[in-house]
Amino acid sequence: xxxxxxxxxxxxxxxxxxxxxxxxxxxxxxxxxxxxxxxxxxxxxxxxxxxxxxxxxxxxxxxxxxxxxxxxxxxxxxxxxxxxxxxxxxxxxxxxxxxxxxxxxxxxxxxxxxxxxxxxxxxxxxxxxxxxxxxxxxxxxxxxxxxxxxxxxxxxxxxxxxxxxxxxxxxxxxxxxxxxxxxxxxxxxxxxxxxxxxxxxxxxxxxxxxxxxxxxxxxxxxxxxxxxxxxxxxxxxxxxxxxxxxxxxxxxxxxxxxxxxxxxxxxxxxxxxxxxxxxx
Amino acid sequence: xxxxxxxxxxxxxxxxxxxxxxxxxxxxxxxxxxxxxxxxxxxxxxxxxxxxxxxxxxxxxxxxxxxxxxxxxxxxxxxxxxxxxxxxxxxxxxxxxxxxxxxxxxxxxxxxxxxxxxxxxxxxxxxxxxxxxxxxxxxxxxxxxxxxxxxxxxxxxxxxxxxxxxxxxxxxxxxxxxxxxxxxxxxxxxxxxxxxxxxxxxxxxxxxxxxxxxxxxxxxxxxxxxxxxxxxxxxxxxxxxxxxxxxxxxxxxxxxxxxxxxxxxxxxxxxxxxxxxxxx
Lengths: 280, 280
Fold this sequence. Notes:
The structure is a homodimer. Chain A is of the alpha+beta class. Chain A has a single domain, classed as Roll (Carbonic Anhydrase II). The first copy, chain A, has 6 helices and 16 strands. In chain A, strands 1, 4, 6, 7, 8, 9, 11, 12, 13, 14, 15 and 16 form a 12-stranded mixed β-sheet that branches. A two-stranded antiparallel ribbon of chain A has the order 2-3. In chain A, a hairpin with a 7-residue loop joins strand 14 and strand 15. The N and C termini of chain A lie far apart (45 Å). Chains A, B: InterPro entries: Alpha_CA_prokaryot-like (IPR041891), CA_dom (IPR001148), CA_dom_sf (IPR036398), Carbonic_anhydrase_a-class (IPR023561). Chains A, B: Belongs to the alpha-carbonic anhydrase family. Chains A, B: Keywords: Lyase, Metal-binding, Signal, Zinc. Chains A, B: GO terms for molecular function: carbonate dehydratase activity; zinc ion binding.
């Protein structure tokens, strides 16, 4: 796993497009909702990462979540270099730069609502949002990292493509450009259910990143309820840098929002494994 | 939660006592074994943190591990300030400084084998070892931290007392004195099953720490197989500092070794909760 060259992440900003005044957000947890753009309140997720509303209790929150405990293709996973192949082709992301975007604290994550298009393996997806997990949901060769970002794309046939990148702590204090404009507005959404608007966002660096770095490819699931399977994951094998200061800022808001790693794709769901080991 | 004052962790070193040439180590996972002191190999734990040998599969590794999936008092937990009380008294630790100690990579953790005595609530415990988890096993008010240390004490009647402290990243690069002498030998035990000997270790800072800072107290379990319950945990409500560099060093060896947070003490084991939600 290589470290992202900071110069590759050099500042870029050019065309700014006005965001639409009404946006439809699609959470990773696949709940559609309509939001009025601008600061305000957003619905809080009904799931958590602790206790009976946490990952071991997600199936109990709704019959719709049954796959969280029964599907044999789930995410996140431990990505072993010797096992998970690289994608033979790169996705082609197009994300218009924006003057501002909605930035929401859903309780389960913080999410930036954007519009874009991703073309991958001949299929066109709409890019809906990106959000963060801390620590990482995916492990790489059994090791965890401080934070992970997911760019969530949905095609017209409902199929889902997630572009994921893991952050590693930068000892020189470097931050990926993706994080820099989120630092100030993050302080405005420390409370679950709150939202704000960002300043200008440019996406040239991150689109160039996903368009060029080696990407692991596997079919998994949403990492949150309803744990829909059949989700294609492209996970970068190059880290994005996060400074210790920025990591502490994100962690103080996200606190802990990583699902435990699942069994390898095709293997029995770990909840069924655990249930089968209970005394008769 | 307060941050440990670095001056409180100022260097101390005085009397050095020779470690015994044969030591009996007691892992947190309660397997007794006899080790010859000095560099060499140590048995590797049969459990992991991933897949069917991970926390959801621990009960399947041995009938002796049944409590991992059935006991209603388990560790780690999410420690909420409003819920978990502070201990009314402090433990009294006595750890002789040593010229060197065994430092082992068990696959599941890295562990320093020492001898000491802890007196708490009128009972005398033998201090056997301390070891590390990354990220933290306990959450504090739902937030995780980069690393946790456990000092494991056992009384003659078999009762277990664990003194735990959470580390937070230091933006000034400070490390708790406990970590400093482990940095060099850590590089000698990057492979599971390897061991080495440390240089001189002094414990005045860490004994003073546990003897004075506020300590949450609750009854939980071993956080590793066989998940023995009835373990008294004293968890410091003051962070120890770890530099980003030291964190990366420990993480590169430990990779990921934190059990998911359990249901609150007295509540149903989360594996039984999950099993009860499976389709009939």
